[in-house]
Design goal:
Layout: E1 2-5, E2 11-14, H1 17-47, H2 57-71, E3 108-111, H3 118-125, H4 129-134, H5 137-140, E4 152-155, E5 160-164, H6 171-177, H7 182-187, E6 205-209, E7 221-224, E8 227-230, E9 274-277, E10 283-285, E11 290-297, E12 309-314, E13 319-326, E14 328-329, E15 336-337, E16 342-345, E17 356-363, E18 366-368
């Protein structure tokens, strides 16, 4: 109960429930108003769920008319620009992938395949023939004839040489021996050297950009009376011979349909002859008159096979010709030869990756390019 004053100034009492009832009436009115607003909003959303503008009666009639026209077979205007079709719009897939490039400052391994040659490998990697040899001196021993299928080569990223550092070496001497510069070696990023204080460990490999050197080894020429031979193995003939002197009218050692190369070109010091295309068992001819001074198996300086079955003719005028990798030798020491006579059959003996004729021409023991001497194919 609460006390209040009446007009006469007398205090009267009112129950508290009266005040509470007024409070709850106000709350019910508020709830009713909120309910009406919520119901109106729900109806609006249900009538237009995508939130689109409500169509006027005129726009609704227009839409109905268009739908009727399409239904009657009339075509709507094209949404494509004139002269452009959907097929003209290019589409491409963008892969979120980064493909690493081939290492450009260090060697790349390569396994020799059957049919490979120094020239074909060099061409594949954009290098000079000599760079294949100088990049693999431990394997090829400065001689392209050591090439064998299955061997693993180091492919340089640049023309030059690959050198294994030895205790006692110094950069100035190495650069001089390989005809390059100290700066070129120090500044090549793959060598990872500090130009100001280079530290090179024994056995460390270095790329020598632009490096090269003269061929260090040739089979020694052995003079035997009038004819001379080469010390390449057991096939060297023991005595000097007489025979028909060369005419200088050179001919290809292969049939006319095989006057082309299938392997290494002339690229001394790496390769002192040319590799002429051949099939197994193809006849091989003497390139000019002369006498046989080598007929048999040959070997390299380390005892491994080089030319395989080899025939050498001394033309008794300062010229010698070599015929390597033969499958069969048809001549013997001292045999007198005339240009065009068969001396053997083509093959792939020795260090060879496939049938061909390794053909060399030497004057006074110096290799000459046969393609500059033989008649044009």
């Amino acid at each position: 109960m609460t006390d209040t004053e009446n007009p006469e100034g007398k205090r009267t009492s009112q129950p508290s429930s009266f005040r509470k009832g007024g409070f709850w009436v106000g709350m019910l009115c508020t709830a009713a108003l909120l309910g009406v607003l919520g119901y109106w909003g729900w109806r609006m959303i249900r009538t237009n769920p995508a939130g689109e503008d409500l169509q006027t009666g005129e726009s609704a009639q227009s839409a109905t008319a268009i739908a009727g026209a399409v239904g009657d077979g009339l075509a709507l205007p094209s949404a494509e620009p004139p002269g452009v079709s959907r097929s003209d719009i290019g589409r491409s897939i963008v892969l979120q992938m980064t493909i690493p490039a081939r290492n450009s400052d260090w060697v790349t391994p390569y396994t020799i395949q059957k049919g490979d040659s120094v020239s074909s490998i060099a061409k594949r990697f954009g290098l000079k023939d000599a760079s294949i040899v100088w990049g693999n001196t431990d394997l090829l021993a400065d001689n392209a004839n050591f090439l064998q299928p299955g061997q693993n080569l180091n492919i340089l990223p640049v023309d030059g040489a690959f050198y294994k550092w030895k205790k006692g070496d110094d950069l100035a001497s190495i650069a001089s021996n390989w005809n390059t510069s100290v700066d070129a070696i120090l500044n090549w990023p793959g060598n990872e050297l500090n130009p100001l204080a280079p530290s090179i460990a024994d056995g460390q490999w270095l790329i020598l950009p632009g490096g090269w050197k003269p061929y260090e080894w040739e089979a020694p020429l052995i003079f035997k009376g009038k004819s001379s031979t080469y010390a390449l193995g057991a096939g060297a003939c023991p005595n000097g011979y007489d025979g028909p002197i060369g005419t200088g009218d050179w001919m290809w050692p292969s049939p006319s349909s095989y006057h082309w190369l299938s392997g290494n070109a002339f690229s001394p010091p790496a390769h002192s002859g040319i590799d002429i295309a051949a099939y197994l068992g193809m006849p091989v001819y003497a390139a000019d008159n002369g006498v046989i001074v080598y007929a048999g198996w040959s070997q390299n300086r380390d005892g491994t096979p080089g030319y395989g079955n080899l025939v050498i003719i001394d033309h008794l005028d300062g010229w010698h010709t070599f015929y390597g990798h033969l499958s069969q030798i048809n001549v013997t020491c001292g045999a007198k030869m005339f240009g065009g006579m068969i001396l053997g059959l083509a093959g792939s003996t020795g260090n060879s990756t496939g049938p061909h004729i390794h053909f060399e021409m030497r004057f006074g023991s110096a290799p000459q390019d046969p393609l500059g001497i033989l008649p044009a194919p």
